[in-house]
Structure formats: structure tokens, C-alpha cells
Design a protein that fits this description.
Length: 1248
Amino acid sequence: MWLLILTTCVALNYAQSNYLTDTNLGPVLSSPGTMSSVLVFLDIHQHYDGNSCSDPDWTIYEMALTLQYKANKQLDSGIEIYDTCGSKTRVAEIIRYRLAPSSCDYIIANLSSISGVISYSSQEINKLLHTHFDQLLLILGEGHTDDIVFKSSGDVYLEISSLHNVQMMLPLMNQLNWTYVTLIYDDHPDSLQKKTLFQTLADDNDICIQSSLMFEDFTQILDQSVDDIKTDGMIIIANQLWHRSQIVAMATTDENGGKIGQPLTGILFEDAYSADDEITQYVANDLWNMTSLNDITKEYYMSVFGCTYVNENVSTDIVCDAIPQISIETHFNQVTKTRLFQVFNQAFSFQESVTNSMNLKNCTNYHRLCFNEAEMVPSASIRVVNASVTETTFQTKAIFVHKDNKTEEETFQTIDFIDVNPPVAAWLGNVSDIVQPSVCKSWCPSCWVTKCSSASNQDIFDGEYVYIPGDVLITGLLPRSERWNKVFGDGVCSGIKTTGNVDILSDAFLYAVLTAQTRYQDLLPDATFGVLLFDTCDDMKRASQILLNFESCQYNFKVDEGASRPSPVLVPSYVIVGQEKSVPNDLFELDKLTFALDDYGNIQGNSGAFYDSSVYNFEAVVHFLNNASLSYVGVVTSGSDKSNNLKTLHELSASKNICIEYHETLSSTNLADVIDVIQESSASVVLVFAEAGDVDRLFRSLTTRPFVKTWILMETRQTWLDITSFPLPLGSVVFHRQGKQNRMFDIYLNNILKGNSSNKSITNPWFDSSTFSADTQTLVQASDVIKTVDITLDTLQRAVKSVCGNSSTTLCKEFLDQGPIEMIKEMTNVWFTYQEEMIKITTNDEMYENYIISNLQTNGLVEVGRWLDQQLIMSPDKLKSYSSKGSVLPEFRESYCFSSRCTCVNINSTTGDSSTDENIVLDYEMAYKANTGEFQKDLWVLIVVIIAGTGSLITLFLMIYIMCKVCAGALVRRYLALGLLLLVAMVFLFLSVLPFLFSPSENVCGMRFFAHGFSYALCFGVILAKMMTLRDYRYIGLGGEISRINQLLTVFFIISVQIAIGVQWWVLRSPVVFTETLRMEIDGTLQNVTFYACDFVREDFISYHSYVIFLVVLCCLYGLSVRRETKNMKEARLLLICSWVCLIFWIAVIVTLIILDRKYLEAICSIGILANALTMMVVIYLPKLTAISRLKYEVSENNMRKENGYKLDTDFQYERPYSLPGTLRSSITDKALTYPRSLATFDTSLSY
């Protein structure tokens, strides 16, 4: 074992000796010590490729030079400074070769002992050191305070508060009323730290950051135009700007000329420390005049001071742009004034004091246990509090600069950053008018998003989203994925949706928002519109989850550096795109404008249907007919189309004296009949409002039966008519919707398809041009998306002008609270032009649309007019009609009624003498139905049928099971009449729900009262009789017997009362069905329609059941008196529980019958009946069925044995002793009792 250790140590020793001569892994700077060395780990270079380091940070190297200088002044303690290059691998290599186990200390005698480690590296040195390292580890880290903290692990942490200039600047900003600023910074690590701290503390100090601008180096900041900054003040955090190494400044945009790099006007913050002349002289003279320098020191002088070596072997052979010493002294004097320099000195001094303390204790192994932190003597600037060394006072120097000239200078001090003195107003004094306040004057999104800025209870949004920042976020929800993984799965959503071309729809959404101000020049020109798209996974529940969580500030988002996070405060409205399923109401209850657009162009708004894409514009057709003198027409529609609702067409045509002779509905079965009606009609004009499939079948059928008519067809957004696909006769007139596709967006997509990337100005991660495929359907849907977004933007502009004033060009503060509600109010005032089409919302379900009117002639479609903005523009002379042979007629074909008695379904329905009938209004409380005695096919009806049928079958099974037990001899001695009668009553009760499942008729209405009233009375009559029987057994003893005839008669008289009530009600109130006949328009013709309703009054229905309720209450109360009876397997308790549960159900049914709407009453009665029947089955018969199945004996005649000449029932032998007469003594006298004289009269029969 010792040989193995010796071999290992020798190998380590050899590796260590190689290490000391390896310039790649060796220390970049060192100073030998007589007793020990301190190892220092610094990221002098930022990157490491495995062989060499790159990207030096000369600020860190200057700190290394200061540590080397400090160590040179010490004899006992040396220093070894290692360049970790920001690499964990390199740190591990240095530690592996420099540190050795304690068992090898006696072998590796040529290495200095390690008294401690100082680390200012991006790598976690404490985790990379092996477990045998017991020396003191001092870790320097960036933070907000200056604490030396002793951790429980023994490591010491020293926080470098190099950020205190930022901390002290924030209170001064509040004093100057700088609450709305722009943050500008470069990518230097020190600048990034200051930027992060400023953003963190800005919220706590009520300071809004309008935007954060990051540049790769300070030269880009110099060229940044202040015109791009929207705030009066800007915060500049940079490195090497204005000839200073680390800059924190407040600058005013109106005094800085055209560029940020112009002469500065503002306040410059610097570290308020004095220069260290000793170190400056060391770097400028002593180090400079050394005969040889290492490579990194040479690179430092050449890079920082622009020096070049004539002879690289002689350090003095050097040429610089200026006098070397003066240049170095000037630079290093600034370095020694920085906070970072001060903390490095403090760290080395702390380590030095610890080492000296251990040397005095003769602790040559420098184990950390030898050091007692309580023994440390504090300096003037720090104090010892609970084993932590804390700095008490912070200070910074503020310099007021006007056009690069220093005019005022002050040193501000603070204790724990609670207050800063002196007051800034007193300091600035005469120049305060130059530093004007920088406050929010209008719409300031960065100030509002802080309402959701707390990330403590926010989860990072786990789904897919697209985010483009802006003053206002137009937010959409699209089904990009096809499945929502609610519980399991690799992600929240899985599978890209292959149908619907959601990628194109999402691109249309972005296109609509980002090009809106180009397409509409007056659309809030001073505001910027952003976009936020969420993936709903094609699940509306997921959409609800996203929307409600986002509105309640439950989400956090990963965004680009400098960009603000999405916030519901910036979202005035939502657009839900591509949902074929119904949209939950909770999405419209957010007090924000919400539109839901489906694949067919229908738009649903907060108050319901906003735009129905299947509705025809009958007004345009009627104006055309009137202008063309066509006063006699027929109408053909599709069966499934909403055009069947022709009330508007009838009213408009009647007002223009246009007669509609007939209205026929197209279907696959009646096509020939419809053609017959059209051919036989004298009306020469046929209006066709039908789907494309029906239109195609109609005109293809006409090819075999040619006759001359003028066909007028109209399309809607949901019904596109491509006339090239079916044989449309010459002379036909077609109303085409204008603006079905967005032409500019189509051009934009075509350019992408052709690979013209210059035309793709929108970055959409959801769009993949390699899979691009857009048919006409998709392009029309894309146009719908753009139109819906434009409607949203128009509503937004109207709300802004209403809240902020008509002259507003952007949003105002008041819009934050009033805007969303105002947008809902302005929803019906939308009025703008989209694709040469006037979009005007007049009501909640009507949108003005424009049409191109074309006439099919021999040379194709010829435009004969337009319907624009509810006005008809028409050229009648362009209209042409054709004969059956295809020759043009001299005039357009007329159509009017030749007879004095023409049938007009529209005029008759409005001017006939049936006004009295039309004024009849059906009583809603009576629930009239348009049919009689028919089974209803509602969902609840099917559920009730299933439950009632199942309950009846189970009850019949129980009857059969008990009879089988009787036939088998197991229950021969037990009387079963009441139990079987109750089962029969339960079957009746289950079946009594049937009358409530049929539409009203005389028998149905009568049975709704009689059937279940009789069933209830029979059930509770049997239950009451069973309770009475159990009570009688208490008094007659074990051998007594109850008359079976009396029990059945009791039940008979109980139900007779209910039978009398039911018969009397039915006879006296007959007929119990009411009828009403109304004259209504059906398929364009007036017809008499009869409606049926039962004689049903809620109060009468409840009072009818008063006797049943009395029986239920009586059973509940009577059952209390027999609750302790144990006869018949404690049946008394089961009957008592059943009665009380049924009473509860009865109370619930009565309450709901009184308070709920009339349409629920049939369902309530059915539920109440089933609830009572199921209660009897579960409470009474389920326990008894279980007991019967466990019987292990037979009491048939064959199994009875005789004792002393008498037959003995085996069940009697297992009766409890106290139930036998005379077996126990009792204080109760038995003189009045009569006991049976023999065993033959004993009876233990149980009634099931």
C-alpha cells in the first residue's frame, strides 16, 4: 500500500515539476514567498480553445498587476496568479497539477505551501477544488453590498460592490423627477452587470425604462442618434466612453446635439476614491524598466497604450504614440480610483492578515480551522457583525457636465443606500433648468407592464408563441399544433397541424398588424403596433387556459435582450383564429374586445354573432330587381342554407311591389320536382341562394330539360360560386363578393414562394416557405384574418379618439383603464374601406358588403353594375338576354305578373287577413310542442330511458332471484308477499317516467299525473305496512303470527285513496291537453300549425301529490318508533333510512319545480322519480340480497327434524336466547302476556 502511495506521489511530483515549467498552465504572474503562497484565479482571458486563451480583459490584468505588486512587498507570503480563461476544463487542469494530497507533502518539498486561494473567476472554484483542500478560500463576486461573509462550508465570500454608482444614482433620479428614461449600454461585462442591476432596481424606485438599447462597443453608441430615443433623458452605461474606462451617466437628449457622442450634457458618476501613487509608479516605471517582460505584459502595453517593440528581447526598445510614463500614469491613476481596485486590495489585505495570524499560531499547514474570524481587527471602513465583515459607508462622485465642460462636482454619501446626501437640488442650484425632468407624457408601455412584472408567482410560458414588441399588442390565438398533451408528452402540444394552413394564417396576422399603418395612413401614426400569437393546440380549453392565465399575470416570457416582456396591460383585444368548435363564453367575459374567426369567415364578438358569413345581402338583389323592372320572381334555396330565412327578402321585395311566386328548396331527392315548378311558373326570373354543390346539380340537370329563364345568383363568403365549374345559361346575372382575397398579401406570398427574400419583411418562426401551399380557400381565409385584424385596429383607433381626444395620434394614460371597455362600445361603429369594400357594422349581426354584378354573355362575364356602400351603381343597357338557341334578344327579358290573380307568398304573408292569428303568442309556461304523442329525442331523455330501463330490469332480476330461492327451499318458511309487492311497485315507479318523455297528448298528459302518483302510493304504502308488521312482532312474541290478509288490505286501502284522487283529477279536468293553432310561413307559404301542451300548473302539480307527501312523512315518523327492531335482518332501519332519503329528494324536487325555468320541469320530475326508485333499490334490497346470498342452511320439509314429536325450524335454534319466552328474568311483569304452549306454534318467519 505504501509503495502504491509512493509511486503515485512520485508521479505527481514529476507532473508538478513539468507543470512549473509549462507556460501554458503556469502562473501568468507570481511573487515568491519564504513560507507560503496564495493562489489567485482570474479570468484574464475570456475564452479557451483547449490549447490557448483569447480575448483578454485588461481591466482584470491590471488587477493582477496590483496583486503582484502587493505580494512583492511581502517576504513571508507569495502569490501565484493563474489565468482561468473562463474555462472549467482549464481550472480543473490547474488544480490537478498544482494541488496534491496531504500524504505527498513530504515528497513535493520544492513547492510552496498554500496559505489560501483568492478567486475572481466565472467558474465555481469551490466546487472544483478536491475535498483535501483545507485552506482558506476567498471568493470575490459581484453584488450590491460590500460584505465579507463566512459560509458554513468554511469558504469566505467577498461581494464587490462595484455597482454602487448605479445604486446611488437611482435616488438622485427620483429627486430630479427622472422616472421615464432610455437605457443605453455596451456589451462589456461590467456594463452588463450595471445594466442588470439598474433594470432590477428601477421597478423598486418607480422608474420606467422606455427601451433598452445594446451595442457591441462604445463606437456604435457614439454614432447613435438621439432622434431614435423617445424620452427626454437617457441612462448611459458603457466602457471606454468619453475617455473614461467605466461610465455611468445621466444625459439629456435635447442638449446632446444630434448624436450621443456629441459633447455630453448631464451627470457623470465616478468612483470617489483617491489614486494609489505607489502602484501607478510601479506599473509606469518599475515594471516598465524591467529588462524582460512576459508575453502577456508585452501584449498589455501594446494593446492599451499603442506601443510597439523594436526588439522583443529588450523591453526598453519600445516605441509608443506618446510619452510612455505620462500615458501610463494618467491611465493607471484612473484605474486605482475604481471600486474594483479597492476591493482587490481589500481582499489581498484580508488574506494577508489571515496568513500572518496563522504564522503567529505556528499553524504551518494553514488549515482553515486555525483561523478565527472573530479575532480579525476591523479597519476604519468596515465593521464586524455576527462573524461578517461589513462596509458601513458608500460614496460616489457626481460631476455635472454641460457640453463636455465640468461645471459642478459633488461627492454623495449613503449608509445602506437608504438616503443620499447632500440633496441633489441644492447641489445643482443654478443649472437645474438644464437638467429637465424626464417623465411619461403620453402612452408609456414600460410603466404599465410593471403591473405584471413580479416573477415570483409567474411560470415561464410553456407553449409556442410569436412575439414582436410594440406600444400595443394585437394578440391572436391560432391552432398551430394539432393536439394538447394535458398530462403526458414531450411538450405542451404535439404535432404540427397539417390542415388549415395555419402557418399562412399566422403570417397573414403578422402582415395585417405590421403593415396596418402603411395601408391606413391615419391609423395612430405615433404608436407602434406589436404582435403576440399563442398556439392553442387546436383545443378551446387550452385557449381558455392561456387567455385567463395571461390576463391574470401568471405567465413570464423569454424575450430578446432589451425587449420588454408581453403584458396583458398592453393587449386591448384578442382575435381567436381558425376555431371550428364553439368558443367558450369565458373568453368573451374578460371586459376586452374579443373576436373569434372560424374557417368559414364567421366572426363572433363579445355580444354574440358579429358577422355571419352565410347571410345574403337581399337588399342588393331587391334594388337590382327594381332597377331592372323585374317584378315577378321565384326563389330557390339550399335546404341546409340560412337563406331559408327569407323574412328580410319578403319584406324588402314587398316594399318594392315585387312578387315572389314560389319558394323551392333544393335537395338530392326533389330536384326534378323543383325543376317542374320552375318550368311551369310564369315568372321568368329565378333567384338562386344556394350552396355551390346544389347550384352545380341544378344547372347540370337543366342541360337535359332546356327552358328559358333569367337566373340571378348571389354568393356569400361561405358560399363561393365559381361559374366556370358548372354550365350556367347565357343571360344569367351573378353577384360576386368584392375583395374575397387580399391582393397585396397574395403578392407578398408569391414573392416568398419564388424565393425573393427581400420581400419577406416579417419574421415568423411558424412559417416554413419550403412547405408553402396556398389554395384559393386558404387565401380567402387569410383575407378574413387580415379583415378581422383591421376591424380590431379600426375599433382601437375609434376608442383612442373617444378616450384621448379626436386629435390623438397615439394612446394616452387614460386609455389604460378606459380603453378596453370603450373598444367594446365602439365595436358596432366600425366603418372603413377594406380592399375597395366598405366595412360597416350597423348591428351585431350585419356587415355591409360590396358586390360586383356581372352578366354572362357570349364573350364571358360582363360587369353591368356594382353594389357599393349600400348604393346600386348600374348600367341597364349592358344587360343582355338570350333565346333557347343562344341568340341575343333585342331587350333584356321582362318578368311581371300577367294575370290579375297572382300568388305572391311575400305579399300575402304581410297583407293578408290573418293578422289576428299572427298576433297570438303561445304561453311559454305551458311548454307548447309542435307535435303530439311523439318520443322526444333530447339528450336528457335518452339518459332517463337508459336509467329507467336498467332499473326495471334489475328489479325484475331481484324478483326472479328471490323466487328461485323460494323454489330451492331456502326461504320456504318466510312470508314474501309484501317484499314482492314492493318490487312490483318499484317497477311501476321506474316506468312512470315514460309519460314525461313524449310530446303532449290526452293519454300522455293524463298519465303524467296518474302513473307516478299511483306508483308512489303503492311503494310507500307497502313500506308503511312492513313497518307496522315489524312493530306488531314486538308484542306478539316469537311464536305469534300476523294476518297476511290484514297486511294486504292495509296496502289496498292506502293506494285506493291515491287512485281515487287520480281518477277524479283526470275525469274532472278532461281534456288535459291544450291546443293552439297559428298561421305561420313555412317554405314561403302560409300554413296552419297546431301546438300541443299539457294542462300543467306548478301549484296544482304539487298539491296533486299532497297525499303522497303525507305517506312519505308518515313513513319517516313511524319508522322512528321501530328503528330498534332487529327482526328480519334489521329491516326497520333500512326502511327508516329509505324514507328519510326519499323525503329529502321530494323537498329538492318541490323547490326546483318552483324556482327553475319551465323548460326543465319534465326533466326534474323524471329525475325525482328515478332518485326515489333507485333509493329503494339500493337502501332496502341491496343489503337484503347480500344477506340472502349468504344463507348456509335449508329449512325445507326434507331438512326439518323432529324432537319430542314436534318439527323444529333450524332457524329457530339460532334465535338469540333473550328472545325465547321465560329464559331470562326481567323486572317487567308478564302476567298479562300469553305465551305459546308448544314449539309447534313458534314462528320465526321473516318478511322480505
